[in-house]
Structure formats: structure tokens, C-alpha cells
């Protein structure tokens, strides 16, 4: 599995996560990517969030360089207006 495949999987996982929130409306989304070369993955996640969510929804993006040597781990958390946790999802992508 190459880099482009990981980026597509991260985008698809983000898309599925956002769609799973309906009809709830998030106020903030946290996205954490764990992995040594995680910046491209984080950009793919940000692109998906920007495409799918209204501009009023805050995106908090974190890239943690510590993590599995080969895999990239993605954690997504959605919060409502009262800071309540609406949903959480974790994914791991291995090249």
C-alpha cells in the first residue's frame, strides 16, 4: 500500500466519520495523526473536513511524530456546542 493509498484511506475515513454525525451538528472536530511522516495525512484530513463541514466548525489538527514505525494512526473526535463529545473514531493505515 503506497502513500497515495494511505491519503485516500484517511480522506475516506474522515468522510465516513463526518457523515456518521448526521443529524447532529458538530461545533468542533479534533483530528490527531500519529506517525513519522504524518503531515500529508493531516493535510488530506483537513481537506476532507473543509469540503464536508460548514466554515463555522472549528478544526483542531495535531500531528504527533511518535507512533508506529510504519503505520499512521488517525483519531477523530467531534464535539457539540456545549463541548459534549458527539462521536469518536480511530483508524490505522499501514503502507
Brief synopsis:
With 95 residues, the chain is of the alpha+beta class.
Describe this structure in words.
This protein starts with a helix and ends with a strand. It has a single domain (3-93), classed as 60s Ribosomal Protein L30, Chain: A. The chain is globular, with a radius of gyration of 13 Å. The mean pLDDT is 90. The protein has helices at 3-20, 39-52; strands spanning 28-34, 58-64, 72-79, 85-93. It has a 4-stranded mixed β-sheet, with helices on one face. The protein is built from 2 helices and 4 strands, in the order αβαβββ. It is of the alpha+beta class. Helix 1 (3-20) runs parallel beside helix 2.
Layout of helices and strands, plus pairs?
Layout: H1 3-20, E1 28-34, H2 39-52, E2 58-64, E3 72-79, E4 85-93
Parallel strand pairs: 1-2
Antiparallel strand pairs: 1-3, 3-4
Strand content: 25-35%
The number of distinct structural domains comes to 1
Low-confidence blocks of residues: none
CA gyration radius, whole angstroms: 13 Å
Number of helices: 2
Structural class: alpha+beta
* Shape assignment: globular
Measured as a percent range, the helix fraction is 25-40%
Looking at the structure, the CATH topology is 60s Ribosomal Protein L30, Chain: A
Distance between the termini: 4 Å
How do the strands of the widest beta sheet line up side by side?
2-1-3-4
Tell me the name of the CATH homologous superfamily.
Answer: D-3-phosphoglycerate dehydrogenase, domain 3
Pattern of helices and strands? HEHEEE
The overall strand count is 4
Largest sheet: 4 strands, mixed
Q: Give the mean pLDDT.
A: 90
